[in-house]
Amino acid sequence: MPTSPSAAQAARTTLTVDEALDRILTRITPLERTQIPLGEALGSVLAEDAIADRDIPPFRNSAMDGYAVRGVDVQQGGMRLRVIGAVAAGAMPEFTVGAGEAMRIMTGAPMPDGADTVVRVEDTDNAMDVVTITRATPPGLSVRRAGEDLRSGEVVVAHGTVLRPAEIGVLASIGRDRVTTIRRPNVAVLSTGDELVDISDDPGPGRIRDSNRHSLTAAVRALNCSPFELGIVRDDASDLRHALGNAAFGDLVLTSGGVSVGDHDHVKPVVDSMGAMDFWSIAIRPGRPLAFGELRTKRGNVPIFGLPGNPVSALLTFELFVRPALLKMAGHTKLHRPRVKAKLLDRIEKPTGLRMFARGVYDREDGTVRSTGPQGSGILRSMALATCLIDLPEAPASAEPGETVTVILTDLPEDH
Ligand code: AMP
Ligand code: MG
Predict the structure, then answer these.
(1) Each residue's pLDDT tens digit, 129-165
(2) Which of 197, 210, 256, 260, when mutated, tests ligand 1's pocket best, judged by the most ligand atoms within 8 Å of its CB?
């Protein structure tokens, strides 16, 4: 029986998971730098060294509500000091604090000259004219030095940092209303298959709802990338060509379905006609057929992943191959999720010669992992129940209870 060209090529090109990932990452490069408002920068990678424009805090100020005093005056409890005024946050002190004097002061208010210590209001009788110190206070207590947080001229958030709320706060405190980041990838997502209907439509006989477009779009969004959906494309070469023409406006294209060697699998030949597609048979379960290539456009080549149609395979190959690629594109240097060793609690059967990624639930307290149950590539619940992937090597035909296995913690961000 004659073999189809794609089947022949598939037979030639069986890659390990690591080889496939290597090839992908070699071809992906970070996007260009772009200036964006700070309010949109959460999750982006900073593409500049952010430098403090002044000391933070800019002036000596009180860390407590209380009384600004001379430290020598409050070395013992019971001292009585004359209150010469008050200073609130945002105001400037009007007097210098002399010996035997105190100024009421609020948290964040500038320290008056002469004072070097703040006695907390709780350690006084809170009086207005003459205050009694009820507890001795060490000199210098509750005073924040100018520049104790950030020094003027210092790099306070370095190039390459992923911006979390804390970094956003630091950038705000140095007045950065715009920051230079690596541009966030725009990702085109489309589903292929004559059997698919939109989730708001009634499937009818022989049809199913298109779940991949939604899971993949969400996976893109969870990475701080911007998805744009191109809907369901029929198993028809010219429809697919048209859709990919639109998809190529993105920085990366994701299709699902139609990458096997069935009669209606058009992704590979169509992409070949618009660029170049490698069709890989990866020694993996689930997710064996995966296509990766590029669409030629006027702007340059746009990487495209043809993910398998089975819902588990689509999401799993996204996790293993697309996610690191998008992270690299977005300027991240940590591309891989944390891995730990765990004791397997139940038996998992697997095909010999294929690396298997079983969906599991990891128990951090006990250091154990169990499978989520049936592991078929259409059983999307196995993915929904999972907190981790159990990474089982190619060779054995099963993993047994009590064995130590490698677990990928898919609930945690990349650590290497
Ligand atoms: P394919 O890779 O096109 O051969 O599809 C493999 C299996 O995945 C078939 O059972 C399809 O019906 C199913 N499938 C393909 N695309 C989707 C989708 N977008 N949502 C849900 N199931 C899908
Ligand atoms: Mg199909």
Answers:
(1) 999 999 999 999 999 999 999 999 999 999 999 999 9
(2) 256
Could you give the CA distance from residue 143 to residue 141 in angstroms, rounded to a whole number? Answer: 6
- Distance from residue 382's CA to the centre of ligand 1 (Å): 16
> Is-contact 87 110, C-beta < 8 A?
yes
Tens of pLDDT, residues 279-296: 778 999 998 888 999 999
Beta-sheet strands, E only, within 58-185: 61-62, 66-69, 80-87, 101-105, 117-120, 130-132, 143-144, 155-157, 178-182
Taking the CA of residue 262 as reference, the ligand 1 atom at the shortest distance is 4
Q: Which ligand is nearest to the CA of 308?
A: 1
- Intervals of the chain under pLDDT 70: 1-13
Q: Is-contact 280 253, C-beta < 8 A?
A: no
Tokens of 265: 């699998």
Angle at 113 between CA 109 and CA 119, to 5 degrees: 60
Mutate to test the pocket of ligand 1, among 190, 207, 208 (most ligand atoms within 8 A of CB): 208
Burial of 99: CB neighbours in 10 Å, binned 0-12, 13-18, 19+: exposed
